[in-house]
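The pair is quoted verbatim as follows:
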Amino acid sequence: MTISADRLDEYFTRYAAALTNFDAEASARLWAEPGVIVDDRASMVAESRETMVEGLTMSYPLYKKLGLASVRHEVLDSTDVSEKLALVRVRFVFLDASGAQLTDTTSYYLLRDGGSGLRATVCIETDAAEKIQELAASRGVELPG
């Protein structure tokens, strides 16, 4: 049996809620160990949940400066790679405190269905870096590095 659309939606609902709540622990629990994030410029491997929590926690001050108040998602597409793996294209929409859209990003997640539920193993970012740069520029926020 493959991973159902309802389970994918429930996973990304929890993922968006963890981002909304700036809850690094909850976000990290949604990842396999190690977890890999790649984009056009770099690859990052988080060997442990502790490393994930540390990285996420370091990003939260920037997200707060940018005005992020909540996140919602839309599963755009999914492909069963095997009985236990699904490649999911998902759009995250980032909103300010009034509910206005700040920006959105589209990413691919390779999810594995294991004994403890769905976990992300790999995230391929397609436009997140550019969208964050555009948002920061429009709000006069200087990005680190």
The radius of gyration is 15 Å. The mean pLDDT is 95. The longest helix spans residues 49-65.
